[in-house]
Amino acid sequence: MLIHLDDVTPMWQVGDSVRARQGVADPDLDVDVSGWQGRVVEVLPEERLACVAWDSQTLRNMPPHLIAECEENGMDWRTMYLAFEDLERAEQRDTEADVAAAIADLERRHAWAYLGEQGKRIRRVLEGVEPTDVEAALQAWRRFLMRRLRLPLSAVVYEPPPPKSGLTLDERVRLLAIRGATLEEGLLADVETRRKQRARVPLFILQAAKESSKPAQWLDDYSTWWHNRHRPVVEFD
After folding, report:
1. Using CA atoms, how far apart are residues 99 and 57, in angstroms rounded to an integer?
2. Across the chain, what does the average pLDDT equal?
3. How much of the chain is in helix, strand and coil states, percent to nearest 5?
4. Helix (H, G, I), strand (E, B), or coil: what is residue 219?
5. What's 200's DSSP letter?
């Protein structure tokens, strides 16, 4: 009896519920993915590859270090391309809404992991803060910085300042206080120039004068967060 290859390794269709066969490993990280289950979201017939979007149970049981490694290396942990023959049919065990919820939860836990050590520091500052709660995030940064920075602090205008501020790039200033926040500028800082002129400028344009210091690290962490997360207007008391 003639057995066609497709009878043994079927041509998977988008939407099929599948499971990785025993002994299958992640082709990029060499991690055993036996029994991992999900849905086919793309089929590459010529390469005989199927892209599997992992279901919520697989996602929630995924090793944290694997997600962190993927984030740091710019790899997608939500899906994986596997050969047709590495998959077998499975019964669907969740909904797409369950998957979305699991991904949102894991993205929150591993936010900023792609930045390595800096990402870990940013996550610690924002621990317990919902990603969409921008007011809480800005409040958290202000509390963190005000508790650690010894003001006034000698600083340098590290990025182009607002034209109306009267400041120039690379100018030395004294950071006096951290105030509110705006959609365009993030946390606002009161500074004083050597000419005793004062201005209110975005905190992200400042860097501590002593580059290798802890204040320099804290301000750089905040700036990195802000450049990647512009948000609505918030005012502090």
Report:
1. 8
2. 87
3. 35, 25, 40
4. helix
5. E
The tens digit of pLDDT for each residue in 127-150 reads 888 777 778 889 999 999 999 999
User: Beta strand 153-157 with 172-182: parallel, antiparallel or unpaired?
Assistant: antiparallel
pLDDT in tens, 161-214: 999 999 999 999 999 999 888 867 899 999 999 999 999 999 999 999 998 899
Query: Rounded CA gap, 174 and 192, in Å?
Result: 5
Burial of 8 (0-12, 13-18, 19+ CB in 10 A): exposed
Look-up of token digits 């034209």: 163
Domains of the chain: 5-110 (2.30.30.30), 117-227 (no CATH)
Amino acid of residue 126 = L
Give me the pLDDT at residue 233, please.
35
Dihedral of CA 51/57/63/64: which sign?
positive
The type of residue at 15 is G
